[in-house]
Specification:
3 helical TM bundles of succinate and fumarate reductases, 4 helices, elongated
Length: about 120
């Protein structure tokens, strides 16, 4: 009589595969495109590079929304990367969970700070 114990869940290793690989590439492309847009805006601007120019660039609502979208892409990009690092190199499950929770709290805090900065301009 064969005993089937079922499948065991593996709690180590980054095996999310294609979806995370694709997410990293899409978010990186978005961030690169946004950076190019900002650099071109700065290159073709007149006057000194100061607070007034930066505030002018980010004062329009569409630019605030676009910037926050890119910030969210950056946060997701960072989350996928750091989660994979924790899963690959931190073997004790409790420590890995604590580091992942800390990372999530830190990234959510960064998103809140970004909202404050963007909508004060």
């Amino acid at each position: 009589m064969a005993v089937n114990f079922g499948s065991r869940r593996i709690v180590t290793g980054a095996h999310y595969g294609l979806s995370d690989w694709l997410a990293q590439r899409v978010t990186a492309f978005l961030m690169a495109l946004f950076t190019l847009l900002i650099v071109l805006r700065l290159v073709f601007s007149r006057g000194p590079l100061g607070y007034d120019l930066w505030a002018g660039i980010f004062s329009a609502q569409w630019m605030k929304t676009l910037t926050f979208t890119v910030i969210l892409a950056l946060l997701y990009h960072a989350w996928v990367g750091i989660r994979d690092i924790w899963m690959d190199y931190i073997k004790p499950v409790g420590l890995r969970l604590a580091l992942q929770v800390f990372s999530i709290v830190w990234l959510v805090g960064c998103a809140g700070w970004a909202i404050q900065v963007l909508w004060r301009v």
